[in-house]
Batch of 2 targets.
Target 1
Amino acid sequence: MHVLSGLPDLAQDIRDQTDQSRVTVPLLMAQLGLLAVVVLWLVLLAATEQRRPEVALARLRGRGRRGARALLLGELLPVALVGVVPGFAAALLGSWLARTVLLPGTAPFELRLPVLAAVVLAAVVLALVTVVAVVRIAREPVETLLRRVPPRHTRWGLGAADALVVAGAGTLVVAFATGNLDGPIALAAPGLLAIVVGLVIAHLTSPTASILGRRLLRRGRVRAGVSVLDAARSPATRRIVAVVTLASALAVFSADAYVVGDRNRASAAEQEAGAAMVADVSGNNLADLRQALDEVDPDGRKATPVVRIRPSGSGPSTVAVVPDAFRSIAVFPGGAPPASLWDALAVPDVQPIVVTGSEITVQVEGSTLESRRIGGEPNPVTLGLDLVRAGETLHTTLGQLETPGDHRLTKDVSCTDGCYVTGIWVGTLPGATIDGTALLRSDQFDLGPADQWVDVHDRENGRFEAKSSGPDRLHITVDSPGTTVFTLPQVWVPTTVPALVPGSGDPDPETFTVVGLDGEDRSADAVGTLDRVPASAPDTNVVNLDLVERGSGVAPLTQIEVWFADDDPVLLQDLTTALDERGIALSDVTTLDDVRASYDDSVAAWSLQLSGLVGVVSLLIALLVLLVSAISNWRFRTRDLAALRMGGVPRRSIRSMAVAGQLPAVLVGVAAGSLCGVYGAQLALPIVPLFATAPEVSTLDLDTAWAATLGAGVLALVVLGVGASLIGRALARRSDLRRLRETL
Amino acid sequence: MNGLLVSTRGLVHIYRSEGHEVAALSGVALDVAVGEMVGLLGPSGAGKSTLLNLLAGVFRASAGKVFIGPLELSAATPRQLDEMRANDVSLMLQGASRNLLPYFTPHENVRFAQGAARRAGKDLPEPGDVLATVGLEANAHRPLSELTPGHLQLAALAVAMAPRPGVLLADEPTSQLDHPARDLVLERMSAVNRELGTTIVLVTHDPDVAAYLPRTITIRDGRVGGEGRSGEEYAVVTPDGFLPLPLHVREHLHPGTLVRFHRSEDEADGQYVLIAEEAGHEGGGDE
């Protein structure tokens, strides 16, 4: 017994999607982790800087470097490690929120080994960073520690640690950008890029601000000059530039990743669905379907037929559409092609020849048509018409012309509802020639004038021409070297079908064919290209349905669909009813929203939604750094401002200076970070899995989402700028003259 | 008596900053006896604080030697310097608050300062007793923010004396105090010097403080420019035979002036008379 089950495929799909999440989630969280480590480092720098007098005293009282280290570690390490507990609790809360809000169904609570390993890793990183920060200050010479004002660098110069970080991170970024780096480290590349740029710009800030500040003072702009010089001498400025650069980069990167992911899912869904709603039609009764559509949507703006014809073997499919309606109803990822492209599919403006009745009579006058076999023996020439009735071609023989002269040919036909005359043909035995002329006319329909017919000249079949002396008669001339059936087509049925071909296609004009409605190849002319045909395979040709329908039946395996401009249940119901009356059923209905939901309900999409959280959290962390930085040196800052007040500077000017002191650093950081975020996204997005399974037709578009990145940059500027301004105002409020007397 | 000898020979210290070199001390020879209390005087920038930091082992001398008891600091390892600062030498920084941990009480500050010495096995008095030595026992457990500037300076003194050092080095210990507080601090420092035998070297440029001290050494242009004992000012002949002239003498003896030393006729007297002559002339001149 052989049991078939979909479970293995389902399990493999889950494993594949889980693997995808192991790229996207670390990619986003690695950036946030980097930011957290950098912020921890900067906070520890600020904290240890504040403890400089204590360290100096410990060293002065003979405790040595080890004693100084112990003093600081005893204070800072427990605080840092205790942070793991609320961090772990926050992670559990986030997990609970994701399970209950984001993920469908009921996801179980899991606490597996990797989670505990992450907790241990976080504790180790916290401890390491704390130890490094403490060692850094504890190993300074006593004389340096005892200085009342720590050494400031107003000239360009990277410290050894910063230079090491810049060199290391820069090497990784370059390796990643040149495609020589993959694996876990590659996931941190955008953050590393921001760290490199942030550190370099941070170290350039002080000397640049010094030059700018002095220049402003020389020009008499005292307030601005003092503010900029104040920023130049403050170590907090460098910290703020570095952190704001990194945070802004993450915010911009996250916004770009989020929007690019969303845009690509939307495009893929549009490409897959084709329209807001698509209904499959059972059977191949195109004529009745179109009648029903005319009934429910007379102007063809809400629903349109789309016919999909696949070749019997391999080769490109054909999609036959009503160009105007299709152009407005179908959804095209990345924008609809121009109207001029669809104009190239236009139907020739000619009238068909219609015959009605149960019998057709054609008079043949002055016929010289004769046929001769290979041996020269004469053979009667058969004359007939091609008639089309309701999409069905009737190859109708009128009779044989056994002698020259006049003939009256009559044939019973089923054309009581009208048939189109699409061709006049002559026939004989295989290999026999046909030549001669004849005048044809009918009392039932006009065969002339001659411009209703397409003369045929080719090497294989010979010549079949039409002339006329009036609209009711046609003079034909045939010269065929050996064709069994030689047809003079009517212009209403084009001999060559204009087609839009795939963008990558470059068909040979001599041999290019498309599959017609009847499943047969038809000569075609490539009149334009389409990058993608909605809801169709990459190698699909698009033709005008009204055109290919002329003179052609519909092959049994042809797939007929109705595409709707909107997800409109009322219209769908009306059409269903109209089709029921004609014995036609709609077999399957797909909406764009359904397809979009299938893309959104994937691990790839859920993972990418983390980027929103990363962006918001990074800005909040940067805001926190501004606050911590202000708190850690508010006494020095307020004392400086109080000294200005003592010097007679008005309160309002002091407030402006306090506010302006931080803003340049924020502005520089946001600008640099935004650029880093844009470039980092370009670097990293190609490795982000955007779909659970790659769509058959790629609509991948990783171009920068400029509106989103600009919005994120502006948001960062507003949040951090307003934060810095409020902090500056708070400092200004506390800068009364009593600060100058403070010693303890 | 637990004081230690302080001695320097040919002490040179050069500051290097952004490509510039400035000689703060250029050949200081100094001896401070065990249990002596000495003031370092001199104008700003003369090198007083630099000398104090060299004695405390905070700075490394560019040349010359510094002895604290038997230990020669320029050859000492960082560990030896730590041990010295833990047990033998205390430095009081200028400004009382710089010597104190702001979130500790005086009692806790003293205990903190004793930590290293205690771990080294040194037998030390309880912090309360140390505070009593400087007369601060009543304020032992009060927050520093509630202490007067004079009491803060006494707390700094107590902290410096916490490990019972052999040498106390004090940088301007009275500079930010009013006269009563200044006198109180000086009195307590003298008491410490007297009762514990601690060698004290303090930097000041307050003439009243200088007058209070039994011995002062004036640092001028990076050298020992003179010495005061019991109110008398002396020029000091350096070990290599140079004699820096006192400022009031230099006002009369312009550069290029030739001088002769004339031994007193009374050889038992052993005094020399300095006879100055104008350059290019013989005979005559100032005595």
Target 2
Amino acid sequence: MKKTMPRPVIGAEKAVGYIRDGMSVMIGGFNYGGIPYTLVDALAASGVKDLHLIANDTAYANEEHPEGIGHGKLVVNRQVRKVTASHVGLNRETGRLFNEGRLDLELVPQGTFVERIRCGGFGLGGFLSPTGVGTIYEEGRQTLEISGEKFIVELPLKADVALIRACKADTWGNLIYVGTNRNFNPLMATAADLVFAEVDEIVEAGDLDPDCIVTPGILVDALVLKGDSYYASRT
Amino acid sequence: MLPVLDDEVVRHRIAKRIALDLEDQAVVNLGIGIPTLVSDYLPSDRQMILQTENGVVGAGPIPDKPDLRYIGAGGRALSLIPGSSIVASDFSFGLIRGGHLDATVLGTLEVDEEGSLANWWIPGKLVPGMGGAMDLVTGAKNVYVATTHLDKKGRPKLVRKCTLPLTGVGVVTTIVTEFCVVRRKEEKMVLCEIAPEVSVEEVVANTGMTLVIPSKPETMLGI
């Protein structure tokens, strides 16, 4: 997708139309905060499958919400073949499908997860982390000793598409965030071939203070206005 | 036999004791469960700067009117104290791994005499994932374990060697249970304080790890 100016403002269905079976998709959010709910709901409705979901967690699926909340729905709908995440305990379907051998699950410490994405987006070949040394997480991973301290070699993470959530955009696609909705979203904006940002509102270029912009618009392909679902309207 | 205390008494006793350990202006990450209660017991002449994995530096109590755009790591709405800041997850974990946190307080399934702890997975049960716990115990200057002395089946949680998958190796600095405070000093676990209703012998009999016993352990503060 060639970037055009001003950044196109498109519907969620059109945005997720770029996502094909088998693609890797990064989705922002921590717990229920900062998830691009409108985009994710459209992806859940699209029926696209065999996705590699890269997200901090798999949101929710429980007794109260068996259909799932946010990208929890993608797991419930069996649209996901692999999950890379740091925590999946709030989505009972993720654990169940993994235990039944129907889902590939890569669990990564949260700081490692986000740093791998940062490496992917910032052109680095990887990094050395002390996190997880001596634990089961180290098994099967390369280690290096530097000045007597052992580190795990961590590799970059990239994706075909990133669905992220910001607060305001301008017509150049520059983004600012609000509260704890920020979390993984600015990092994911750097690490995918296509980046769709769901926002509360879009203002004219020049209306956002350049000093406060977190994500430069050059990283963003298109903007989607948030919908009015329960969580989209409250987060 | 250790006396049986009311669950709420246990939780608040542990939280209060840890709060008394934290210095003014300490930057602290509190895990879910008992650790969450620590902030309720900070002495009034001290301020604690609460950090959350999802990016807040300077978190405050649950507000009267929750705004779901501001939540803590457990998903509860939080307030921001004057002077707080919010960062993205890479920066948040840079703070955590980089040694910028004075303390992290976590619950555990097991903690052992080498200072290792296991608190993220019981094999055979659904795997929840380690979340931020491995980074927190690796990077924080002090790792406080807040735990009941025994598990639900009456077995010691302070063990000689953890049998469950570890969260971190040799990282624990202080263990606080309802009956004692154990600190890791020169790679040994020292029984520093005990609760008034138990004897040293009772604590030792219900503890799997080898404890160094000072000639007279202090009475647990805050009771």
